[in-house]
Structures are given as structure tokens and as C-alpha cells.
Amino acid sequence: MHSLLIVFISSQWSYPVNLGIPGVDDMNPQTCREQLWESPTCLVWQAYINNTWDIFSRTIANNWSDTARIPTGAGADINPCVAYDTLRNYFWCVWQRYTDSNWEIYVSSKTIYGSWTTPVRLTNDSNTDASPSVCVIGNNVWVVWRKVNNIYSCYYNGTSWSSPIPVTNDAISVMNDNPKINNRHNNPFVVWVRDRDIYYSEYISNSWQTPQAIAPHSANDTLPEIAIGARYGSAYLKVWVFWQSNRDGNFEIYRTECDSMNIFYRVTYNNANDIIPNPLDYMLFIRDIGPTLVGFSTDRNGTYDIYSLRHYWIGGYDTIPVDINPAQDILPVTTMVNGWPCYLWIFWQTDRNSDWDIYGSYITIYSGTQESAIELQSTALRCIPNPTTNICYIQYCLNAQERINLAIYDVSGRLVGKIAEGIQKTGTHYAKIKTDSLDNGVYFIKLNTEKFSTVEKVVVIK
Asked: What's the pLDDT tens digit per position in 12-61?
């Protein structure tokens, strides 16, 4: 049996686009995680309009739709989560609403091009219900959330919603929070944070199994996410769990190994804080190695930026900047958008425009098989950020090992400085230049190799 292989046509992320609502605070982006080939996706977030928080969405099949508001009532609506239902061709969105002097969980659905239905209230008691997560498994739509300090769940069977089912039953002194649900071997699988450790449980034979710890440690382990492996027919393969941990002094990204919750690995290595990992479902190009793409936020450049971990079929992750604008860029989420070629998107929250906005960037891929596919890389040149103030990162890609010369010139063609030269290997390369000593104006980064030459304009602003 051939395994799915993802091949990157472009090695650089697109220029970021603003997908939120201009002039208001847009926060907490979420998108469909359980994506298949030729399936659409939906982006949801909360926006502060008319002195309250409401839930908004945009869908994409071939192009982005207009912004749509989920019909909500009085009170604040926050923390949305969305999933795609392949059987019904629906999107399902859950969120928490402040109503009747309390936080409750609501759900709404829509077809790709239709409108959101009237929200259904899933909880109705005097307790705090918060942080919902949703996924679709077969005919059932599953939702988990935090009720006070425990994790609860319910499901929709195509006719009605079940009553809340407890996942945990701890004393009030124990804090269970931030649950995430996904599919493991066609069973609901939940991970969450229990008093600074990551726990999981699986729904088997109509019952949630006894919670188990993942890599318990005295440090702070938090913000878990689940990635599903590729599937053949109706059989789902393994799952991976990613989270952030400060067990090494600063926050780094960790993960479990190939459906084994008692084996874990550190994924990132640096002296900065790497946080909020968000792996992509299904995109496994070699059996059992883990997700092809993981988005995360890092402060390695001084402010929080969006980076991606990308796994090549030859083995190992490489770290690629997605956006290093000098703003606070946080809460990345990943998804796949149908088409041929296909597109992998990362969305995130940023304050670059004096308020919070939702931005997105994509990279182009196509699929093949492990035995036959080869990696295709662009020779494009990119300057990040552009315009720049004091530091600029130069990204360029080589299709073959060859001798290069990378330099910066002013508008008159005068050589301002050499950046890199010599023989370099195939792949994506990065160089950092300081532009604080340059005058305001336009400059040109020129890359010469033995086979091609390309130029990228960069603007320096003080």
C-alpha cells in the first residue's frame, strides 16, 4: 500500500492577507481541522462590535466568501470552534455565550454556501460551561467543554443531542481545562490540561475510559492539540498529541509518538518561547512519522511571530518563518483547502493594525506517493518583513546544489553589501541582514546562481 506524500511546490509562505473585519478587534481564530482532499474549510473567530462579542465566519472552497455573522442573541459570544461534516456537507460551530448570568455552550450549523442556523443551547444549568471543542465522527457530531473544573461531552446522532456525559469526575480542587476532541480509530479522543499536566481519554463501548497522563512533569504542560494520521477507506490511523512545556526553562513544543501516549519527543530547540502548537490533520507523507505541518508562535525575534515546522519525506523537521512582522502574532491554526494544487493555510491573531485582526498565509502543495514523489522547490526570493526597519530576513530556495551570490544594491545599482556567497545545498535558505544603518528608501536584493538570477525589492523605513 502506498502512503500519502505531500510535496511542496512553493517553499515560501504567501504574503499575509487580512481576513477579519476592519476597524474592530478580531480574536481567537479557529478553522476546520479534520480535512480531506477536495473538502472546503471554514474560518471562525470572535469580533467586538456594538459593545459586545459576536461570532463571525468565512468559508472557502475556491475563493473566500464574505464575512457572515452567526445569529446570536444578547450577551457575549466567545471561544468558537468549527468542524466540517462530510456526510451532511455541513459546518458545525460551537462557542460559549454569556446568558442568564452564566456561561453556556451553543451550537449552529450551515451548508457551504448557506446561512448559519438558529443556535441550539447545549447546556442549561447554573454552572460555568466554557472552552468548547467539536469534531465529526461518522454520523455523530461530538462536543466537549469544561463545566466548572471537569470535562463534559455530548453528541448529536442526526436527530437530537444527548445529555451531557462526564469525561472526568474530579474534586473541585482539581482543575481540568482546555479540552480538545478529535478522532482516534473512529472513536472520540479527548486531551486536556489537568493541573499543569496533559491527560487523555477515549470513548469506547459507550463509556469514557479512565483518564491517563501524557508525559507528566513538575513543569507547566499546557495547550494540547491532536493531529490525526492519514486514513485508508474508513480506517483511521494513529494520532499525535502536541503541547507546550517549560520543563527546560523556556517553553518548547513537545509531541507524542505515533499513537503511543507514553512516548514523547521535544520538537523545537532554542532559547526563546515556542508556544501554541497547531498540527495539521491527515497530512502524513511517510507512514507513522507525524504531521507534515505544525504552526506555532515564537518570541525568538523579540515579539511573537508565526513559524511553521515542516516535515520532509527525507526525514526531520525544518523551521520556516510564516510571518515576522514586528507585532504580536499569536494563536496560529492550520488547515487544508481543496483544489489542485492544494493549499495549506495558517491563520493567526495579530495586533499590527492598532487593533486585533485575523491574518492568514498559505503554501502550495500537491499529493503523490512515498515511492514516486519528489520535492519541488521554488527559486523565489523573499524579504521578511517588507517594508523593514532594522532587521530583514532573506529567504531563498535552490533546486540543486550550486554556487550562489546574494547581495543588496541601491536604486542606482551600487553594491551596498554582500549577504552570502559560495556553494550551497539544495533546499530553503535564510540570511539575516541589519538595515538600521541604511537610509530610507528602496533597495534590491539580488540572487545570482550558476543557472538563474532573481531580484526582490525591499523598502527601508525608519
From this structure: 788 888 999 989 999 999 999 765 555 778 999 999 998 999 999 999 87
- CATH number of the domain at 391-460, please? 2.60.40.3080
Cα diameter, the chain: 74
In contact, 329 and 306? CB cutoff 8 Å: yes
- Sign for the CA dihedral angle at 366, 367, 373, 375 comes to positive
Residue whose C-alpha cell is 474549510: 41
Look at residue 366 and tell me whether its pLDDT is greater than 70: no
Determine the CATH number of domain 4-376. 2.120.10.10
**pLDDT class for 8, splitting at 50, 70, 90?**
very low
Which residues lie closer than 8 Å to 244 by C-beta, 6 or more apart? 221, 222, 223, 251, 252, 253, 254, 274, 275, 276, 277
State the residue for C-alpha cell 511546490. Answer: 9
Partnered with residue 55 across adjacent β-strands are: 46
Helix (H, G, I), strand (E, B) or coil at 276: strand
Per-residue pLDDT of 208-241, as tens digits, reads 999 999 999 999 999 999 998 765 555 556 889 9
pLDDT at 7 over 90: no
Q: What type of residue sits at position 276?
A: I
Where do the domains of the chain lie?
4-376, 391-460
Read off the pLDDT of residues 72-115 as tens digits, 9 standing for 90 and up.
777 899 999 999 998 888 999 999 999 888 999 999 999 988 89
Question: The pTM is what?
Answer: 0.77
- Answer whether 424's CB lies under 8 Å from 409's CB: no
Residue among 135, 147, 73, 136 at smallest CA distance from 104? 147
Q: Is the fold of 4-376 the same as that of 391-460? A: no
DSSP track, 110-164: EESSSPPPPPEE---SSS-EEEEEEEEETTEEEEEEEETTEEEEEEE-SS-BPPP
DSSP state of 400: S
Q: Is 286 exposed, middle or buried (0-12, 13-18, 19+ CB in 10 A)?
A: middle
State how far the Cα of 352 lies from the Cα of 356, in Å rounded to an integer: 7
Sign of CA dihedral 30, 292, 221, 327: negative
